[in-house]
Amino acid sequence: MNAPIVHVNASIASSNAPAPTDAAHRPVGGSYTFGGRKGRISPTRQRALDELVPRYLFAPPFDASRPLIIEIGCGKGEATAAMAGGDTDSLVIACEPNAATIANLASLLDDGGITNVALWVGDALDLLAHLGPASTAEIRVWFPDPWPKPRHAHKRLVTAQRLGLITDALTIGARLRIATDDAAYAEEALAAIGAEPRLSGGIVARPPGRPVTTFEARGLRAGHRPIDIEAHRIR
Q1: How far apart are CA 178 and CA 203, in angstroms?
Q2: pTM assigned to the model
Q3: Contact (CB, 8 A) for 233 and 173
Q4: Which band of pLDDT confidence, cut at 50, 70 and 90, is reported for residue 84?
Q5: What would the mean pLDDT of 70-83 be, rounded to a whole number?
Q6: pLDDT computed for residue 148 by the predictor
């Protein structure tokens, strides 16, 4: 028997996202990050979407004295929930355009009594624009879709244009952390970082606090080597 098609509560779909902007007036085409594919989910996940996700949605005002950590593309949120205990002095905003997927993270937050994580259902770079420049202490991007086909290259997150928008959001001294197991994607990200004069960084050893994500585990089984990149805003 097929699971029901996911139904996204209208309040969830609209609570986070700013008013839509015509594609021609957006800095980087019609969308910044990509996702939100519709699909089928279990009744349990649907209940989490309807009942739990609204509880954790990010909405101002918030305690500006707490450092902000933005995770772009949190997926099901296993890494987000696992790392939350090490970020108790910060507010982590986990961003994911797929509401059905982020419902899993809402369940993890509820089950674990985690109170320092909020959810943004929508485009992460819309959130950064909403927060304003120099607002963020750390931005995390764990295993973004590499979009390997040339016709999909415009969808890659870590490009020179999008990296400029990400850098705008970082405070001086703040860091951008990326993990990928696609060597070509890592090379492109490093080139973009090298071309951004406000950033300094490169490949680093795997941080001990970063857990193995679902995508990383899949890649490891296929023989892929994870690559961690870290860059700091220096000016």
Answers
A1: 9
A2: 0.85
A3: yes
A4: very high
A5: 95
A6: 78
Instruction: Specify which of 13-27, 34-48, 86-100 reaches the highest per-range mean pLDDT.
Output: 86-100
Give the tokens for residue 208: 């001990």
Tell me the three state secondary structure of residue 48.
Answer: helix
Is residue 113 over pLDDT 60?
A: yes
61 cis-preceded (ω within 30 degrees of 0): yes
Distance CA 124, CA 65 (A): 21
Using a 10 angstrom Cβ sphere, with 0-12 exposed, 13-18 middle and 19 or more buried, the burial of residue 115 is: exposed
Q: Please identify which residue in the block is written with the tokens 């108790």.
A: 88
160-169 and 183-195 helices cross at what angle (nearest 10)?
A: 60
Q: Is 145 one of the annotated active-site residues of the chain?
A: yes
Strand partners, 229: 178, 203
b/e string for 33-71 if b means 16 or more Cβ within 10 A? bbbbeeeebeeebbebbeebbeebbbeeeeeeeeebbbb
Backbone angles phi, psi at 16, to 5 degrees: -85, -50
Helix (H, G, I), strand (E, B) or coil at 163: helix
Q: Does domain 10-233 have CATH number 3.40.50.150?
A: yes
Residue 55 CA to residue 110 CA, distance in Å, equals: 10
Helix (H, G, I), strand (E, B) or coil at 70: strand
Q: In the predicted model, what is the mean pLDDT of residues 202-206? A: 97
In angstroms, rounded to a whole number, what is the distance separating the alpha carbons of residues 104 and 3? 16
Q: Please, which residues bridge with residue 142 across strands?
A: 179
Whole-number Cα distances in Å, 116 to 27, 67, 80, 85: 31, 11, 11, 9
Which residue out of 22, 50, 63, 145 is catalytically annotated? 145
- The residue type of 6 is V
